[in-house]
Fold this protein.
Amino acid sequence: MTLNKIQDQIIEEFAVFSDWMERYEYLIELGRSLPPFDETHKTPEYLIEGCQSRVWLYPAYEDGVITFTAESDALITRGIVALLIRVFSGHTPDEILGADIYFIEKIGLRENLSPTRSNGLLAMMKQMRLYALAYKSKQER
């Protein structure tokens, strides 16, 4: 499934909620659905800088696509990273680097996050793209 189709699905899912309390509850539910994170990856190497809460993001690169797993010590942040994983995982470095990430604005996420959470969201997206850039450069060698 394309990045845009995944984003469109997320927009549709969030459209059913009438207020942001319901959307926060849904984010928390998404965070709880994250698969277990390998404790051996809870190292400074995979800790995202710029997040108020602690977020570990681990990339795996196989057969030309990147798969992300993540863990956070904050429920809403877990939900946010779950959305980003859903969008970016299973795609090539080029797809990730070329993606127009519009679902965040369309569901009103950025405007309903505190400034520190919004910075964390940007830091998570930046780190995912940096991993994609690193894997792309390895491909080109």
